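Page 37, continued from 36.
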């Protein structure tokens, strides 16, 4: 039951944090000739997903280093604040419009090919590398060291985004309560992560500095 909850939390976190990625992919695709756009959207989503899996597996291992958990908790608080700003400014709605423009052969750039698919994917990759920190921290914190859970949760989110990105952005725009619920989950995870980063007997900074004995926290949320 706990594994199902955590897997669901990973999927939700990844989807609600995908608005900025979807916006970049949609804008890059819309700048291509219509015949290349579908490939750009699909390959762009796959690139974003693969990068997140690689970075998240690395982050999961790093969070096991004593002292890093507290830093990760602080960064996850920043992620929560950033997501709050995205919800307020309607990033999901902008991403939905960008993807719809890319799907419409009569919208966006409609002239002869002036940019190759490879160049568009390179732009998407660079943007994803710089924007993947939020996804990586959130899903790594929820997975809590369970690499199998991490990969399974992200794999499901990948399939959803690869084949239903526009629909997902539409749902998040139509029902903003989903994004607020996702933010609440991340705030909870960030608070727990900070508590463990300070108080955990093995990884907390307080026991490391000899300020207290520390507590043993169970895995899971």
């Amino acid at each position: 039951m706990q594994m199902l909850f955590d897997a669901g939390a990973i999927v939700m976190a990844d989807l609600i944090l995908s608005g900025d990625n979807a916006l970049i992919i949609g804008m890059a695709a819309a700048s291509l000739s219509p015949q290349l756009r579908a490939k750009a959207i699909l390959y762009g989503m796959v690139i974003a997903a693969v990068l997140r899996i690689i970075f998240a597996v690395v982050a999961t291992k790093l969070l096991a280093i004593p002292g890093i958990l507290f830093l990760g908790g602080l960064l996850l608080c920043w992620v929560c604040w950033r997501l709050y700003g995205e919800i307020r400014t309607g990033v999901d709605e902008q991403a939905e419009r960008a993807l719809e423009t890319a799907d419409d052969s009569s919208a966006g750039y409609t002239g002869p090919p002036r940019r190759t698919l490879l160049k568009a994917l390179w732009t998407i990759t660079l943007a994803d590398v710089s924007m993947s920190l939020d996804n990586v921290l959130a899903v790594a914190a929820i997975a809590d060291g369970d690499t199998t859970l991490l990969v399974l949760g992200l794999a499901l989110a990948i399939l959803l985004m690869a084949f239903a990105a526009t629909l997902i952005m539409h749902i998040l725009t139509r029902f903003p309560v989903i994004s607020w619920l996702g933010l609440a989950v991340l705030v909870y995870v960030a608070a727990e992560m900070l508590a463990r980063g300070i108080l955990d007997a093995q990884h907390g900074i307080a026991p490391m500095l000899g300020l207290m004995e520390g507590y043993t926290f169970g895995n899971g949320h």
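The chain has ten helices and no strands. Flag for discussion at group meeting. The CA atoms of residues 69 and 197 lie 5 Å apart.
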